[in-house]
Amino acid sequence: MKKWMKKAGLVAASVAAMTTLVSAGPARADIGRVFYFTIQNNTICDATGRYTSLYLNISNIGSSSANVTVHLYNNAGVEVSPTGITNLAYNFPSNLTINSDTTIGSRSSLNYMTIFGVGGAGNVCGDIPAYGKIVVDEGGAIIANGEIKGTVQSSSFVAQDMPILINNGQPF
């Protein structure tokens, strides 16, 4: 009888311990939302007559502000921080800084525009991004898209014009 009671006591203690473990609650990892996108970066670009322009538009369609960071990487997978154009003469001034945490207000947008190659605001052709990611730390509902163009400066001929699709245009 003592032996049976000892076994029953061990079983009861095991069940109690397992119940405590199971009811402790699920583990949770708050890492935010991360969305990767590709950029067709084999556009025409040199230091004498052809340049590549990169455009990004990130909008928060949610009812609360969102904290986001946009990261860009070149062909070698090295993070790059191309300087955005802020000159209003381009009619598309950048108000987004790459690789920097930024808050986007509710129902607001941020724009990014830069040029690589001739007249490229100091951005060399080798730093044209091949891919990027958007990290949303908290809040909002983000939609984003972009475009990359290769242009011949002397004639303003656009040799290449490719969209940058981010999450198929769906909110994230």
Automatic annotation (TrEMBL):
Source taxonomy: Bacteria, Bacillati, Bacillota, Bacilli, Bacillales
Signal peptide: 1-29
Protein name from the UniProt record: Spore coat protein
Keywords tagged on the record: Signal
